[in-house]
Amino acid sequence: MQRTIDAVWRIESAKLIAALARLVRDVGLAEDLAQDALVAALEQWASAGLPDNPGAWLMAVAKRRAMDHFRRQERLDRKVAELGREFETAGTYDDGLDDAIDDDIGDDLLRLIFTACHPVLSTQARVALTLRLLGGLTTEEIARGFLVAESTVAQRIVRAKRTLAAKRVRFELPERAERAERLDSVLEVIYLIFNEGYSATRGDHWMRPALCEDALRLGRILAGLSPDEPEVHGLVALMEIQASRLRARTDETGAPVLLLDQNRALWDRLLINRGLAALQRAESLVDRRGPYTLQAAIAACHARAPSPEETDWIRIAALYAALMQAAPSPVVELNRAVALGMAFGPQTGLDLVDELMAEPTLAKYHLLPSVRGDLLVKLGRHEEAQREFRRAAELAGNERERALLADRTVAAGERASAP
């Protein structure tokens, strides 16, 4: 029964909290009420069995807890009347309240997403609150996913809810003029969660697939709620295609397998097809592609290629040039250097990488010396490559990636000393 309740909670919690937040106008209180309902479910479902409509049952209990709360807060007349009217019109939990949960649920979830990712919160707080409220994850699960102390995550969530209350952030969709800016924050948070799962910054595992799955679920929800937002579909496309490679990105020991060495037969064709469909949707909605749609187009080039040799590297380099125009970044330029090296030879890529060596923001970015080392190997300059791989290994925070770079350091050294 515990597993069943956990599964129900993952499915229903976001809708439940969103609907409650609309009623009580306080995200923190809404989550507390939802948690109270979960405790009641743990106590009652074990003996009484799973109700026909678990989400409606949870909502009914949470509303009763809300009424009790407002009685204690001496706001009985206004709030209880408001909740009572909805309760009376909805009927009992098993024959009508399920419809009440679904009323305006799309708007409720959008409000919850925009509230959890509000710019008044730090990025770390947005991530924690989003995974808690919309992902249905426990504090322990979030902490395990990001390799931080559970107490740290708990503090971030508590501070985030207090900040939202102190700043009087309203539980509402922002005006159209503000929505684009806020949407950028939402997409950033979802992609940050995905990236931490796709290439973990720390720890003994190169990937944390559960985080990728959580980000994909959030992205798909957002795409369903925002069907006319091209960059939402662009992000979903990017994540679907990237996630298609997860099985091929490590060997049987858990060691990383780089893109050009992966067994493409292991790539998930269903996810690739979903990603390509989302990319087509994104491109059909706008004349000029945004950053996520451009990155998805790059990922699609890899997904469509039967082998590394058949990859359209010239198109990838052109897409990175377009991405530099849409969202300039030294990291994007580094990726463009890789594509240029593949399309026009390693010296072309190395020339651009050498220009980036003086970029302050890349001073401790381990992939800069890693890319330079790879290009030097292709040019036969193995002694220089050895130094670059050693530097990259020193900078890498992930144990698996550090081991891979250490192996490449040794390999370059052996080639350098070979007659």
UniProtKB/TrEMBL annotation:
Pfam families: DUF6596, Sigma70_r2, Sigma70_r4_2. The keyword Protein transport does not apply. It comes from Phytoactinopolyspora mesophila. Gene3D superfamilies: 1.10.1740.10, Winged helix-like DNA-binding domain superfamily/Winged helix DNA-binding domain. Residues 113-164 form the RNA polymerase sigma factor 70 region 4 type domain. This is RNA polymerase sigma factor. Residues 16-75 form the RNA polymerase sigma-70 region domain. Residues 182-282 form the DUF6596 domain. PANTHER family: BLL0085 PROTEIN (PTHR47756:SF1), BLL6612 PROTEIN-RELATED (PTHR47756). Belongs to the sigma-70 factor family. ECF subfamily. InterPro entries: DUF6596, RNA_pol_sigma-70_dom, RNA_pol_sigma70_ECF_CS, RNA_pol_sigma70_r2, RNA_pol_sigma70_r4_t2, RNA_pol_sigma_r2, RNA_pol_sigma_r3/r4-like, WH-like_DNA-bd_sf. Keywords: DNA-binding, Sigma factor, Transcription, Transcription regulation. GO terms for biological process: DNA-templated transcription initiation; response to stress. GO terms for molecular function: DNA binding; sigma factor activity.
